[in-house]
Design goal:
mainly alpha; globular; 5 helices; Non-ribosomal Peptide Synthetase Peptidyl Carrier Protein, Chain A
Length: 127
Amino acid sequence: MWPSGGHSTRTKIEETFQMTLNQCFTTVLEDILGRTVREEIFQLLEKNGIKPSEISSRFDEVIEVLARVFGTSAQLLVYKTVAELYKEYSLRTGFSFGESLRDQVAQLREKVVSDLLKPKHYTSIDS
């Protein structure tokens, strides 16, 4: 369980969620497109002012950049990322391919923070 501490616990949960979303996005890109294309996408995002560490906090902008490059195919990358994020928190993905994935990320973030959830591959931020 998370250490008690009110605000700092919420902050750690948020930070962990952000790191987990970044990792899920990276994993999905590499699994679907390969390491070389993943690196190209990171370069593209950086050219658009989005650093790799900012992917989760600027996910809406990431989606927009991907949509400009990949068109509607970008939805697959976003869907897989969100599905992987739900899996990481051991939650069922209760959404379909066509639903608003931005809303799903926001709902999951709320649930993670309110229920103090940890991802499967949690490593302490303190260490």
